[in-house]
């Protein structure tokens, strides 16, 4: 199944609730969406047993910062900060995987004083009582390959030919991050969430859509749509960061295998918080983005979980402003404060 992009631009996006009159109907439709998604990104490899090393530990104001590494599939290693609240001893706390945006500093851009535009959500959340794991994505932070530029990933497709997409690699690495969190003695394994901005935002909801252990998700300026996008080929082959190589010949013909609100809907009915800005220069097509988000809300409403989906749209740009972060944190506080059966 494919869509003609010009038809979506003319007639509107496919409805998620069309033909969905029961949870069983949604599971059937979800299965079709997931298959199309998996066909594009490729299957993920089996997870490997956790191997976790603490390289350094520093006492910060209100928390402990550990510089850690943990293994992932394909004999690869992820570098990260593990942030542990002061007074965690003897407790089982909620935890978050905090994913950074398109910043060459990687984990440092959201969890240190180097955070740009005050997007230090990892640090703010550990001070709120969460155990937070902030990993470097491949091509950023300590995982920039020697001789390569940040977020230039052509080498990845040469070094890891077993992957159809770097998206599958990111998801593989993030699932191993969840392994670390759920095995940690200070973490309540039933209260793990994900949060991210921009690049980290869409990786957060991708992860929540495929991993049942992620119980709630926050995405900031990470949701886009093909419909209304003046350069939808951004997701296909390019000189900088290629997300989905298999999309390249399709998009050249004006075809798309899914719309992104369908991928966002894979998260349903888990609690999900989305923030998008009308002045976002990266994803400026806010009208189609808003349409996609409303469609996802209609699905949550149809399934009887309208209170689990919060979508905010404001006049701001590609940022995660303080008042929006506070709203997101309150959302996580609510949904990760106790067990929710999904």
From TrEMBL:
One of its GO terms (molecular function) is hydrolase activity. Keywords: Hydrolase. InterPro entries: AB_hydrolase_fold, Dienelactn_hydro, FrsA_esterase. The keyword tRNA-binding does not apply. Residues 113-222 form the Dienelactone hydrolase domain. SUPFAM superfamilies: alpha/beta-Hydrolases. Pfam families: DLH. PANTHER family: DIENELACTONE HYDROLASE DOMAIN-CONTAINING PROTEIN-RELATED (PTHR22946). This is Dienelactone hydrolase family protein. It comes from Virgibacillus subterraneus.
């Amino acid at each position: 199944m494919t869509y003609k992009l010009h038809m979506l631009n003319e007639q509107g996006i496919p409805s998620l609730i069309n033909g969905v009159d029961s949870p069983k109907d949604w599971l059937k439709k979800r299965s079709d969406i997931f298959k199309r998604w998996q066909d594009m990104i490729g299957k993920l490899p089996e997870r490997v047993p956790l191997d976790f090393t603490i390289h350094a530990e520093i006492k910060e104001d209100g928390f402990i910062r550990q510089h850690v590494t943990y293994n992932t599939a394909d004999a690869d290693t992820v570098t990260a900060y593990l942030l542990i609240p002061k007074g965690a001893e003897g407790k089982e706390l909620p935890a978050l995987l905090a994913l950074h945006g398109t910043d060459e500093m990687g984990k440092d851009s959201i969890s240190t004083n180097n955070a740009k535009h005050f997007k230090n959500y990892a640090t703010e959340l550990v001070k709120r009582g969460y155990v937070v794991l902030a990993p470097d994505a491949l091509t950023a932070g300590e995982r920039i390959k020697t001789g390569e530029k940040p977020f230039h990933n052509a080498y990845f497709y040469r070094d890891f030919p077993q992957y159809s997409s770097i998206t599958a690699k990111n998801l593989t690495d993030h699932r191993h991050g969840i392994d670390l969190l759920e095995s940690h003695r200070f973490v309540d394994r039933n209260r793990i969430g994900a949060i991210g901005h921009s690049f980290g935002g869409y990786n957060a909801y991708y992860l929540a859509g495929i991993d049942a252990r992620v119980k709630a998700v926050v995405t900031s300026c990470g949701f886009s749509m093909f419909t209304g996008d003046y350069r939808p080929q951004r997701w296909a082959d390019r000189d900088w960061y290629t997300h989905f190589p298999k999309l390249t010949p399709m998009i050249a013909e004006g075809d798309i295998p899914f719309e992104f609100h369908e991928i966002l809907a894979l998260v349903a009915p888990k609690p999900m918080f989305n923030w998008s800005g009308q002045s976002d220069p990266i994803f400026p097509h806010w009208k189609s983005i808003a349409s996609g988000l409303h469609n996802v809300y209609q699905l949550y409403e149809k399934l009887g979980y309208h209170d689990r989906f919060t979508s905010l749209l404001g006049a701001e740009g590609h940022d995660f402003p303080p008042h929006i972060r506070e709203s997101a944190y309150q959302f996580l506080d609510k949904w990760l404060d106790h067990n929710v059966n999904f």
